[in-house]
Amino acid sequence: MTASTPSQWTPSSWASKPVAQRVEYPDQQHLNSVLAKINTLPPLVTPAEIERLRHQLAAVQRNEAFLLHAGDCAESFDACTQERIAAKIGLILSFSLILVWGARIPVLRVGRIAGQYAKPRSSQTEKIGDRLVLNFRGDNVNGLDPNDRTPDPERLLSAYFHSAATLNYIRSLMTSGFASLHHPRDWSLSHVRSSTLRRKFESIVDGLADALDFSRAIGTESGKEGPYERGGGPGVLGQVDFFTSHEALMLDYEQAMTRKAPLPGDDASKPRADGFYNTSAHFLWVGDRTRQLDGAHIEYVRGIRNPIGIKVGPSLASEELTKLLEAVNPDKEPGRVTLITRYGAAKIRDHLPGHIQAVTQSGHPVTWVSDPMHGNTVTSASGLKTRNFGTIISELVSCISIHSECGSRLGGVSLEFTGEFNEEGFSVTECLGGSMELSEDQLELRYHSFCDPRLNLEQSLDVAFLVSNYFKEERRGNAKAHDIFKSLLGSEQK
Ligand SMILES: O=C[C@H](O)[C@H](O)COP(=O)(O)O
Ligand SMILES: C=C(OP(=O)(O)O)C(=O)O
Ligand SMILES: [Mn+2]
């Protein structure tokens, strides 16, 4: 082995490296027995689905599709209910329909769902009253209740079953007509309170219905089969891919869900080599706090076949970025790596151009995605973590502009959002602004996030319309991102 050859990878080789954000369990034997059980449970996703996502991400890299990566910051076990899951999926479908309508390119949907439980934190502990307790690290680690902060391995098992139940319901929704373009009104519309937003969504749905009628009339869409419940097949319009993702943070769990399987091959008569697949989700990402080149998280993801994301923040030097790409994708395979940038609106200009230049020079194929949420968190006067709609849009606009100035292209967005609403039909109040002009004194009304503030239903649709309108203008040959967004913002944010 030469100095530059990486050492042998195994599903457990990460354990010999420093583990940032490590969770200390009081009872190691208990942890081991839970992990042994998880290792016997069936995969949540299959290698074929994982390969399919790689393939589709390669299309994003060729600018043939746009990636929507979205969902909760911290998913919770209590949110594993019919209504909450349907609301999340409904928002993702609505958002992507709005994008497809404007951009006229397919949207690849990857939810932060069915496993997005663990959280890295800025601080190990927090002060509650005059008590110093361990910080909440996500439902698969410890409880939000300050008296339940000791990490409990049983929560990993519970995470598996909550992921399984969530994914099972998502798969049912996807195959039984909920996602069909024939029914976009079922997705979220009845809970959108703003009449302007409702009208704008209605106008897309009407346009779509017209287009479908037209294609039925000219015979390109048969529509003869009828709805799923009366024996119809999904048809082209009901065939919707949906992929799951979470942060690869709890490496013991990820290792236990890693399985060996034959790699894809075109020639059925030839034996196929094996690869390792993380079967807990289709897409896994490494966070900004755990992406150290010599750390455990990068060591783990470098050996799995799943497409992976790496969060890229202001503290990442360009040379380290290229070394990371070498480590996780030495063969420069398309569709393998997504870079999720999250600098903050005020810092993006200082860092993104250098990162784009370094990646271009390295010849590494990547999908560039903007996460305009994580670099823009502020604390409100009342002490709540929040984010400003205008700042979020500002980072997104700068990101699109910088990519085009550097001869690159933004391939997708990564958002923390939720379509959930309470019994009276009101959505959450965690981020400021948007067309509903949510103000600081409203934040406490329905602040439900377990970790970071999410865009609510209306604010998410605001983003969808802005991005969609931008791509529509661009498609029509109307120039600059900044100017288009500025004029759109003027009309969206009265
Ligand atoms: O989602 C990202 C991080 O886990 C989160 O921003 C950390 O939040 P904290 O700074 O409150 O620990
Ligand atoms: C932890 C996250 O983000 P980052 O690593 O970019 O802070 C996240 O996306 O939830
Ligand atoms: Mn977050």
Defining key terms:
13 helices; eight-stranded parallel beta barrel; binds phosphoenolpyruvate; binds erythose-4-phosphate; 494 residues; binds manganese (II) ion; TIM Barrel; globular; alpha/beta
Can you characterise this structure?
- By secondary structure, the protein is of the alpha/beta class.
- The protein has one domain: TIM Barrel (Alpha-Beta Barrel), CATH 3.20.20.
- The protein is 38% helix and 13% strand.
- It is built from 13 helices and 14 strands.
- The protein has helices at 28-40, 47-61, 82-103, 154-175, 195-217, 235-238, 251-256, 296-302, 318-328, 348-362, 389-405, 457-475, 481-492; strands at residues 66-71, 107-112, 125-128, 131-134, 243-247, 258-262, 274-278, 283-286, 308-312, 337-341, 367-370, 378-379, 385-386, 412-416.
- The strands form 4 sheets. An 8-stranded parallel β-barrel has the order 1-2-5-8-9-10-11-14, surrounded by 5 helices.
- A hairpin with a 2-residue loop joins strand 3 and strand 4.
- Helix 3 (82-103) runs parallel beside helix 12 (457-475) and helix 10 (348-362) packs parallel to helix 11.
- The termini are far apart.
- The relative contact order is 0.15.
- Bound molecules: erythose-4-phosphate, phosphoenolpyruvate and manganese (II) ion.
- Residues 73, 119-122, 374, 451-452 line the site of erythose-4-phosphate.
